[in-house]
Amino acid sequence: MRNPPNPSNGKSASEQANAWGVTIPIPPNRTLSPLLFSFGFHLVLLVILGLLLSTQTQGTTELPRDRDIGIAIVHQLPDRERYSEVQSIEEPSELSDSQPDSSSQSSSLAPPSDLAPPLDLAGVLNSLQAIPTPISGTGITGESRLSGDAFSGAGGDQASKGEEATTMLFGVSGSGTQFVYVFDRSDSMNGFSGRPLRAAKSELINSLGSLTERQQFQIIFYNEQPRPFSLPGVPMAMVRAEPSNLELAKNYIRSIAAYGGTEHESALKLALRMGPDVIFFLTDARIPRLSEIELRDIQMRATTTGTTIHCIEFGADGGPQSDSFLTQLATMNQGQYRYINVQDLKN
Q: What is the mean pLDDT of residues 60-80?
């Protein structure tokens, strides 16, 4: 047996391997640049992939858009239902950039273009609060009937008011020297082809025609707020029934259009602040009804001014309802109540 060479003989490992007849592979001599190139190439790929993922649109915009949802208010009118759309307040930019579709909106939601600007009710009521409510004298110091107040055309004493007269409205008669007509002009008066509003205007003009210059009158049409009649350049006041004033009042009546909702109380209180002898109150709206507190407040004011309140109700139910606040309002204020079936109106 041949002994292996002694490793201490000073030969290298390759020489010793050759002596045994064994070939040892020698690894190639690698440089650093290929490694750096590979690392950089993969890094670039990762960056590009990250950029592609970050620029993709997030969310659900590519899904079918949700259907728009709207809100509508249903107004129950005597002969139909009226729907009015509630506009969204969350997207004002869209509303300002596009014109409203007039075909989708009820013509009654906005006032006609030829109407006068609405009454500054807040300013009127504030000025009224500074005027004491007219009361009859009892001899107590400081308690007397007002003379020459804002609503008296010729002083507050009975002689200057004029002589008493009687006028009628839909068969309801009222007697006195000062008359205030409070008429509903909300959108429901457009029902039945506009017959309620036309009939109210015609009857009002006829009632005014029975007055003379010895009486005074005022007209208040109302929806969400009252709109009283006034002479050109003259603050709102009781008006003498002179021919020229009556002609202006008739033109005012003919110009009235019906639109909007209904708010009874402010119109009635504005009429009572004038301290008339008679109020003719006409409406077709049982809802909203006056509450018990509101009815008592109106009764107290009417008792103080000595005002009688007559009520005329337009309806399509064939007869008055037992729970109508209008019957209670008339009874509480020594007035008459009359129900008019609008289906029987001719004009």
A: 56
